[in-house]
Specification:
By secondary structure, the chain is mainly alpha-helical. It is 62% helix and 9% strand. A hairpin with a 2-residue loop joins strand 2 and strand 3.
């Protein structure tokens, strides 16, 4: 099965001796071992490279696979660790621990930003610091490791960095979404509800970004950005809540 899946991966380019040393150092730091260095290297290859070179060799398919593997390992952990939690509670915890914010942070801790292979345009525009690219690369790495070494090995790797995030996210403060926290804060202090407004949309149709502002007691916060209006509203609410939480008043829910 694993051999058949690996054959479905496009043939990555040959590796220089310098790149092999970089990948070896990364594996030591990450605590993993790949049989195929080329497959590992492919997991860091952003689509901007294939766009510039007019080929289909990039990490998008590995990212698609890794997202599913990450989800499976995470929900299995949640199901096992919290036998008394409802499906809704488990879903909230999962949404936090596999979020772009968390995954991009883990990616930086592993040093994936230094190993990314980007097109010249993407690299010059700060692609190594973009949360979406970093999170996607981590998922691609997970997909590649699954193909290379199997589910058991990749599950051990995922648990190593996701367990702590689950512990933090299982706290009630993290499991409640920021829109709810901000609404409770606004109701308690100002006897009013936050108001959300879509300020703009950017990007091509297949990769749109939404920008939302939120008004609390007459003051505008944001904009928050997201791949859809709902996630942009959450980001705007997070910005507003964190700004308001710096005040002396203690928000509801903390």
């Amino acid at each position: 099965m694993a051999e058949r899946l690996t054959r479905a991966v496009p043939a990555p380019p040959e590796l220089s001796s310098g790149r092999k040393k970089e990948l070896a150092a990364f594996q030591k730091t990450a605590g993993i071992r790949f049989k195929s260095q080329k497959l590992l290297n492919l997991s860091f290859m952003h689509r901007s490279v294939s766009n510039e070179s007019n080929n289909k060799i990039n990490n998008e398919r590995l990212e698609f696979l890794g997202d599913a593997i990450l989800g499976a390992v995470t929900v299995t952990l949640l199901y096992t660790l919290f036998p008394d939690r409802s499906e809704g509670d488990l879903a909230k915890i999962k949404s936090v621990v596999v979020s772009e914010e968390i995954l991009s942070g883990i990616s930086l801790e592993l040093g994936i930003d230094r190993l990314l292979i980007l097109g010249k345009g993407e690299d010059h525009s700060g692609g190594r610091t973009k949360k979406a690219i970093l999170a996607d690369a981590l998922e691609a790495l997970i997909g590649a490791y699954y193909l290379d070494s199997g589910y058991k090995a990749v599950a051990v790797f995922i648990r190593r960095f996701i367990q702590g995030e689950i512990d933090r996210a299982s706290d009630s403060h993290y499991t409640r979404d920021f829109k709810t926290l901000l609404q409770e804060y606004s109701q308690r202090l100002y006897r009013s509800y936050p108001g959300y407004r879509l300020s703009r949309k950017t990007g091509p149709e297949h990769e749109k970004m939404f920008w939302v502002e939120v008004s609390v007691n007459g003051k505008i916060y944001g904009p928050g950005a997201g791949k859809n209006k709902k996630s942009a509203e959450q980001e705007a609410a997070k910005l507003a809540y964190e700004a308001l939480a710096l005040r002396k008043e203690e928000p509801s829910g903390q």
